Amino acid sequence: MTAVDTPDLLDYDDVLAKYEPVLGMEVHVELGTDTKMFCPCPTEFGAEPNTQVCPVCLGLPGSLPVVNEAAVESAIRIGLALNCSITPWGRFARKNYFYPDQPKNYQISQYDEPIATDGYLDVILDDGTTWRVEIERAHMEEDTGKSLHVGGATGRIHGASHSLLDYNRAGVPLVEIVTKTISGAGARAPEVARAYVTALRDLLKSLNVSDVRMDQGSMRCDANASLMPIGATELGTRTETKNVNSLKSVEVAVRYEMRRQAAVLEAGGEVIQETRHFQEADGTTSPGRRKETAEDYRYFPEPDLEPVAPSAEWVEELRGTLPELPWVRRARIQADWGVSDEVMRDLVNANAVDLVIATVEAGASPEAARSWWVSYLAQQANTRGVELGELPITPAQVAQVVALIDSGKLNNKVARQVVDHVLAGEGDPEQVVADHPELVVERDDTKLKAAVDEALAANPDIAEKIRGGKVAAAGKIVGDVMKATRGQADPARVKELVIEACGG
Ligand SMILES: Nc1ncnc2c1ncn2[C@@H]1O[C@H](COP(=O)(O)OP(=O)(O)OP(=O)(O)O)[C@@H](O)[C@H]1O
Ligand SMILES: [Mg+2]
Ligand SMILES: [Mg+2]
């Protein structure tokens, strides 16, 4: 049967009327160890191509791998934080495939003896409810090299004239975290996918095992998706969408794939088991390679490495190093700040909790920190189409703005302009204020008094009213003075001066 890859998409609601969406997430995290998984090469991101390589990670004959203990330690901590059982004895496995990104022609991975199995991660959905995602396993493996297909008309692999290879990434320690299939989420399946990756990223960040940068590839997510006719008992054929590089993209990719598959099925076609690539630009997926099955990889235990056999004592010791986990921390913070469930939920939804916490830790009051992140900065993130945490301003910088307001140097209005300059990459708020003296609040009473006198002279009838005791009339004069000083005055001080000038 010839399947049309992308017929007209079905509305997501129409998909749900007939099909149950099923998900499965594979997340690869690059561990932040100093050296690679099986050799002492450095792992730093962004070095000149092929400068961080040695015979082991280049797979030269005669070289032998040695396990990086720090990587095993991180993998165990990840497993524990995900409520998994840690295997007392497990081996690495060779995953055989022929592709130039892996010069050995196999990747050292784990197969049927992963370091961690059977856990779960509770994630919070937009409406505040909790969804439990079951974890099938977390296993260790080495990253592959990077290939860059260049030249030719399209720059894509088939159109490219040649490929460039960078093996700096080959052998970087990875942990792959694989969920069991997730079903029953219905309309919320795309949201569950995003919420899961968000929660996992927060968790990994708190464990300090990886810098979890989706944009730099240190956290990579593959979204498996399939449809099951409602009432069916067997899973449908899945596709595996790669290249989903932001939290938003996870949700967009899953929804798109569900709508595409439904359209394929409705047109009488078949979903093909394959990898697909997410296109950030238009939110669609396009076919990648037909998926090998496990047999194609001819897995077998890696003969060059000792089994991994963490003692119960070591595992318990590592359990003791787990930090306060993000959701426990959130509950504690909520109690500390004395905010309602609704306020906390808004913060969680805006992905602002950790940013607010960090801003408070940098010296701002919880109220001020919260208000900056959920109002002005949230608007800025929205206009730019990025996550709050992706805005080019740090919690410490926000705390600095708050301090400048508290000290009377900035008022709320000009503070926003200072933030705009910070977002434009002009440096810390202190620096911005030093570079833009016009943004600092006028504290010089003589200058303000002159502006007040001028405004009163221009509005004799209002001045008369104020002199007669109608303090409320001062508002118009304060407004004029604020205008005259281009917003650079403290309105409360101006009001005092107006009343003083009118003999109050
Ligand atoms: N029918 C299905 N629909 C949606 N998800 C599925 C389905 N069957 C399996 N999955 C999910 O797909 C993922 C498969 O990941 P796994 O790492 O086990 O294998 P793989 O993708 O074949 O291997 P590789 O690591 O080489 O990509 C799991 O999260 C699993 O729950
Ligand atoms: Mg996998
Ligand atoms: Mg996979």
Give an overview of the whole structure.
By secondary structure, this protein is an alpha+beta fold. It folds into 3 domains: 12-316, no CATH class; 326-439, no CATH class; 445-501, Arc Repressor Mutant, subunit A, CATH 1.10.10. Helices cover 38% and strands 18% of the residues. The protein has helices at residues 12-18, 69-81, 189-207, 247-266, 312-319, 326-337, 341-349, 353-361, 366-384, 395-406, 412-423, 429-435, 445-458, 460-467, 474-484, 491-501; strands spanning 19-30, 85-86, 93-96, 106-109, 116-124, 130-142, 146-150, 162-166, 173-179, 219-229, 239-244, 274-279, 284-290, 300-301. A 9-stranded mixed sheet has the order 2-5-6-9-1-10-11-12-13. The protein has a 3-stranded antiparallel sheet with strand order 4-3-14, with no helix packed on it. It is elongated and about 95 Å long. The relative contact order is 0.11. The model has no long low-confidence stretch (mean pLDDT 91). Bound molecules: adenosine-5'-triphosphate and magnesium ion (MG) (2 copies). One magnesium ion binds at residues 26, 222, 240.
